[in-house]
Amino acid sequence: MSDEISISPEAVDQLYQRLDREAKAGGYNLNPDVAFTKGLVEGLLINEARYGYGSCPCRLADGERKLDLDIICPCDYRDPDLVDWGACYCALYVSDEMRDGRQLLQAIPERRPPEEAREAGVSAAKPTATAVGEAAHDEELVGFTWSGLPVWRCKVCGYLCARRRPPLKCPVCKADQDRFERLM
Amino acid sequence: MPEVRGHIEGKHSDCQVLLYALSTCIWCRKTRQLLEDEDVTFDYVYVDRLDAEERKACRQQIRRFSDRTSFPTMIFDDTDCITGYKPDAIKERLAL
Predict the structure, then answer these.
(1) What is the rounded CA–CA span in Å between residue A163 and residue A76?
(2) B29: domain range?
(3) Least packed by Cβ within 10 Å: which of A60, A106, A140, A163?
(4) Hey, are the CB atoms on B48 and A60 less than 8 Å from each other?
């Protein structure tokens, strides 16, 4: 491969500004160490140029989108890592505590399952693993989800999400995590 | 953009250090910087810049020491490894 992709500082600034704006609008924070964060943004742009999608700069992408969907930034592991460690795996996103210097940034253990487990997951496709727009609606499930994940409801605005734990902040109304209730 | 593979000569060369890194990863950059600042002799390889066959070989190498292929991974004397930017653990392992 040995590509020589070069990203201009202007392109880095532009994406940095956009991510910062979107993070704030969604109740997230970019890492306040701007030089560090811009380094990650540059990595995202390099990956976008390489693979056609901005996969996590701190993980080895396969190069096939289907196999890398879980690590396209913001990755599937960002929110649980924010809850458990105060930062996502690459530390592009941080919690309020981390942003304000009340929590120490440390190396975050890899939550992504090992390759074999991911491969097994891809081949054993569940009904929910269909592409967007192909979801079947002929089955009715009440009380639990195909993924086995609980569904959380923001008691402030009614936002619903199916995940292991609710987000630190509601992405719609910015209510804190403790304003969520388990719906099912 | 750094070279894909390389060798850095430093004062501390008792232990054979091989750094598997990603060229886009800030934690890998910090790890390499730490080794250079501490004047350690080491080899490095940027796995994301290798072709598919070489990547696979690197992944297999890393999996000999670790249950995950994550970066940075440093292999010491072909016997043990440290994964992640852990300055204290790295310095302790290298008796710095």
Answers:
(1) 10
(2) 1-48+69-86
(3) A140
(4) yes
- B interface with A, Cβ–Cβ < 8 A, is 1, 4, 22-29, 47-52, 55, 59, 67-71, 83-86
| pLDDT single digits (tens) B65-87 | 998 899 999 999 999 999 999 99
Whether residue B28 contacts residue A40, with contact meaning beta carbons closer than 8 Å, is answered with no
Residue B57 resides in a domain: no
From A65, A129, A69, A57, select the one nearest A93 (Cα to Cα): A57
Distance from CA of B13 to the nearest CA of A (A): 26
Picking from B26, B73, B83 by the largest number of A CB atoms within 10 A of its own CB, the best residue to mutate is: B26
Kindly provide the ipTM of the predicted complex, given to two decimals.
0.93
Is CATH 3.90.460.10 the classification given to domain A9-124? yes
Amino acid at A38: K
Locate the chain B residue with the closest alpha carbon to A42. B24
Q: How many CB atoms lie within 10 A of CB A66?
A: 8
* Alpha-carbon torsion (A95, A98, A103, A106), positive or negative: positive
CATH architecture of A132-184: Single Sheet (2.20)
Average pLDDT, consecutive stretches of 10 residues, N- to C-terminus, chain A (184 residues): 80 97 92 96 97 96 91 90 96 96 92 88 48 45 69 88 92 86 87
Cα R_g (chain B), whole angstroms: 12
Q: Do B1 and A36 touch (CB under 8 A)?
A: no
